């Protein structure tokens, strides 16, 4: 679950005109609110009467907001995967987060200074695996009413099918008690209607997160999950320090291990070595 802490929601200068997934921490001088996806731990504080600025999100997320909380369309600016928009001197590019339908990562570049930040929100850092399947899509209510609708569908097509199987999107499909880790269906009608809860949102594994940080080599990392205290944030940052570019951080031991200027004639500069590699976040 996303940590609810004001200091983690507002981006750092020169991008401090933006708040991400932080509607409980609105500030008078901020008019731009980025929303990575529509899960409830990221929309906390967002309601139909929100009028403190513009919400930037994907088209899918926008439809969810209008349908669930009644957020007026005039409050929303949509940006979808691969698109870029410019907002007050900042270029915002939407990237696929792979977490759930409509989920985004936001790449922000301050055009005047070149300062860049990537806000991932919840994301799955694996290579996308897509399978083309053909299914019959029908709206279903929850509980027994869903099975009644499935039974009615079976009656209309009983000459062709013996049972109806549906897949209900959920984030809570598995438990440790499930045999072999497989979800158990909700069965009605002597097995003629079956409903499986299938997780549709994805998070990254430890290995995937390590590879993701190593590929980007960021100079700073701001945890936003399980980061309620300064100690929590330091622990998470230390876990990824070896994969970051920390050579410019004078507060770390890495910065002091630099090559001395060459004694050769004409040499006038030194180069940093090591970066964050091998230090393990010791600081």
Would you write up a description of this structure?
Residues 3-168 form the Metallo-beta-lactamase domain. Residues 261-283 are annotated as: Disordered. This is Metallo-beta-lactamase domain-containing protein. The chain contains 5 helices and 11 strands, in the order H-E-E-E-H-E-E-E-E-E-H-E-E-E-H-H. The longest helix has 13 residues, at 144-156. Mean pLDDT is 76; it is low at 128-135 and 258-283. Among the domains are: 1-124, Metallo-beta-lactamase, Chain A (4-Layer Sandwich), CATH 3.60.15.10; 144-199, no CATH class. It is globular and about 75 Å long. The strands form 3 sheets. A 4-stranded parallel β-sheet has the order 1-2-3-4. The protein has helices at residues 6-9, 59-68, 144-156, 206-216, 230-240; strands at residues 18-20, 32-34, 54-57, 76-78, 84-87, 90-96, 104-110, 116-119, 164-170, 186-188, 193-199. By secondary structure, the chain is α/β, with parallel strands linked by helices.
The order of strands across the largest sheet is 1-2-3-4
So how many helices?
5
Low-confidence stretches: 128-135, 258-283
Strand content: 15-25%
Return Rg in Å.
Answer: 24 Å
Number of strands: 11
Query: What do the pLDDT scores average to?
Result: 76
What's the CATH architecture name of the domain at 1-124? 4-Layer Sandwich
Secondary structure class reads alpha/beta
User: What is the helical fraction, as a range of percent?
Assistant: 10-25%
């Amino acid at each position: 679950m996303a940590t609810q802490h004001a200091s983690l929601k507002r981006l750092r200068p020169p991008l401090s005109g933006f708040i991400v997934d932080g509607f409980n921490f609105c500030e008078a001088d901020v008019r731009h609110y980025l929303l990575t996806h529509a899960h409830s731990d990221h929309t906390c504080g967002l309601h139909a009467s929100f009028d403190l600025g513009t919400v930037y999100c994907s088209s899918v997320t926008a439809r969810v907001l209008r349908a669930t909380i009644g957020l007026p369309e005039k409050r929303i600016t949509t940006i979808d995967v691969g698109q870029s928009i410019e907002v007050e001197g900042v270029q915002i590019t939407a990237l696929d987060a792979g977490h759930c339908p409509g989920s985004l990562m936001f790449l922000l570049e301050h055009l005047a200074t070149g300062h860049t930040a990537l806000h991932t929100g919840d994301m799955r850092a694996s290579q996308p695996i897509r399978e083309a399947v053909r299914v019959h899509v029908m709206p279903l209510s929850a509980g027994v009413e869903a099975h009644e609708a499935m039974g009615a569908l079976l009656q209309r097509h009983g000459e062709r099918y013996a049972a109806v199987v549906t897949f209900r999107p959920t984030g809570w499909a598995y438990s440790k008690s499930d045999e072999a880790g497989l979800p158990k269906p909700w069965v009605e009608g002597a097995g003629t209607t079956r409903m499986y809860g299938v997780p549709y949102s994805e998070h990254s594994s430890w290995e995937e997160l390590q590879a993701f940080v190593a590929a980007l080599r960021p100079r700073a990392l701001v945890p936003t999950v399980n980061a309620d205290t300064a100690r929590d944030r330091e622990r998470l940052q230390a876990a990824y320090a070896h994969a970051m570019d920390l050579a410019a951080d004078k507060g770390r031991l890495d910065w002091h291990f630099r090559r001395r200027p060459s004694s050769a004639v004409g040499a006038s500069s030194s180069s940093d070595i090591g970066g964050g590699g091998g230090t393990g976040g010791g600081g």
